[in-house]
Predict the 3D structure of the following.
Amino acid sequence: METKGSGKYIISAIGVVVVIILLVFSGKVFENVDANKIVVIQDPVDGELHWYVTQGLKWQGFGKVTSYVTVMCKDI
């Protein structure tokens, strides 16, 4: 027999599991691009490359990230 509150417990348990999964994979969803870096993110599905040269939070979508440090050159 099902009690009155058991449905709430199931929904709460599912919610907790979803939050834990999101926390575990949160490092693979977004990438923070620093001001002194150029970041290339390769899509995991089609392999398309996305170049980011501006700082901020960028969509990673579980793709492979390669970052390059920008170097300022001064002519003498």
